[in-house]
Amino acid sequence: MSERESTWHGQHQASLSRGERAADYLRNGMGSWIFVGCFVLVMVVWAAVNSYLLAEDAWDPYPFILLNLFLSMLAGLQGAILLIAAKRQDAIAAAMAQHDYDTDVQAKTEIDRLMAINNHQLELLQELRVLLLQPRRLSGLEDGDGIPRHTGGDQP
């Protein structure tokens, strides 16, 4: 499995149908400044050609009824494509939120398990301290409060 397909997003991208990929591609294209610039340029060229260059023989003279028809069809198609893409984005966001939630639940379970291990280790360390201090108390080298007693020598 490639590195791209090993992530959730890569697996999702690989599972898309041709129509879903086309909707994403068109959505990304229509939502760019390049598309807006090209669209305005086509409108200006259409108007210039039909108004000035072919003034007498224009195929779509002013008020550009054919252009209005094309724009209406384009708007209808753009609306449908954008709705398809928006619906897919909502589905992706929901799936990612579920994935994040599942990851958080797994992390909490793991943290709880590690905290239980840590608490058990702390209990074992406390028991070891008690066991290490017991022989000293029994031999009389230490007071009951854990302070070593001096047994002689040149100290008072």
SSE arrangement:
Elements (H helix, E strand, L loop, with lengths): L2 H4 L1 H7 L3 H13 L2 H21 L11 H75 L17
Helix pairs in contact: 3-5
Question: Which features would summarize this protein structure in a list?
Answer:
mainly alpha; 156 residues
Mean pLDDT: 82
User: What is the element string, with H for helices and E for strands?
Assistant: HHHHH
Q: Tell the overall outline.
A: rod-shaped
Which percent band covers the strand fraction?
under 5%
**Structural class per helix/strand content?**
mainly alpha
Number of helical regions = 5
Give an overview in words.
By secondary structure, the protein is mainly α. Helix content is 77%, strand content 0%. It is built from five helices and no strands. Helix 3 crosses helix 5. The longest helix is centred in the middle third of the chain and has 75 residues, at 65-139. The chain is rod-shaped, with a radius of gyration of 39 Å.
Short précis:
This protein has helices at 3-6, 8-14, 18-30, 33-53, 65-139.
